Amino acid sequence: MIKSHNFGAGPCILPSTVFEEAAEAVKNFNGSGLSILEISHRSKAFVEVIEEARDLLLKLMGLSSKTHTALFMHGGASLQFAMAPYNFLSKGAGYINTGVWSKKAIAEAKKIGAVSLLFDGETVDYKSVPNKKELETLPTKGYDYIHLTSNNTIYGTQFKEFDTLGSPSIIDMSSDIFSTFRDYSQFDLIYAGAQKNIGPAGTTIVVIKNQFIEQIVSRNQLSMLDYRKHIEADSMFNTPTVFSIYTSLLNLKWLEEKTISVISENNAKKAALLYDTLDKSAHFKGFAGRECRSEMNITFTIENPAIAEAFDLKCKEENIVGIKGHRLVGGYRASMYNALSLESVKVLTDIIEYTDNA
Predict the structure, then answer these.
(1) 101 flagged as catalytic
(2) Which of 85, 237, 277, 342 could be stapled to 233 by a disulfide with Cβ–Cβ 3.0 to 4.6 Å?
(3) 254 counts as catalytic
């Protein structure tokens, strides 16, 4: 089998051991004679899976079921763009716009209630996000909640630190959750699509501070959009994404075994190697500002078409996939999630250096 170096933004690379265990479960789940694809979501076997996955989510976040509730849901982060304001937006919410996904979240929230734009990244071409000191100066008090996106996959920017905001905080952590140390307790609601650092596409995690649940808006809620319904049903208000949740559990176990400390160190090494190579290059230019460059999604451009053509050809020869930038911005994007090896990054940097000097 030819080794591919997967820099795709998602669905993305997962550990090989997770692929192997998940593949075995598709054929025979835990020796039951049944595939994980056909077992009942109400069976004892799967109830144990989802309960363990929820517990492990909280454990990896340094949280407790006494203070927080973890859910596995449908609809991706895109549903949460609407579901969060549907449950919590009453008088007004503050949004920090740092890219395409936060902009989509803003658009959904505006359909439900009043939204104030506290920071508009469009004014800086989405090349930067507010640092901790700048967050402190934003008028964040008096809102039902403040919403932000921790990492911006398309533009390659990332919040490095978060301030304790003056209102409850909701954060989309789809693309950098469990990639480094975070104080998850400072957020009131965290959501993340699984298909980056958690598991395969199909499920979405939501972690809510129990005290925040009490602030859900009093209205005649649609049942499927009411967090309380999903909490009462233990994430099984309707049939959950069984295979995606099971595979996510395998990956969460891998994360626990590796430790977030080791994962964080590895991610820092990978990012440093690629950024150092780009910074030294004559033809490859990084997009994001230095202070907020993402460790997960490194974006860059090549102004010389001949160099770009040579780079594309070399990437194909070396089996690098998923390197093209998002269709909205073009250029290139190297997504380097937890399971991507330093070896794969070294292959990419060697190509950059080779192409640069050819």
Answers:
(1) yes
(2) 237
(3) no
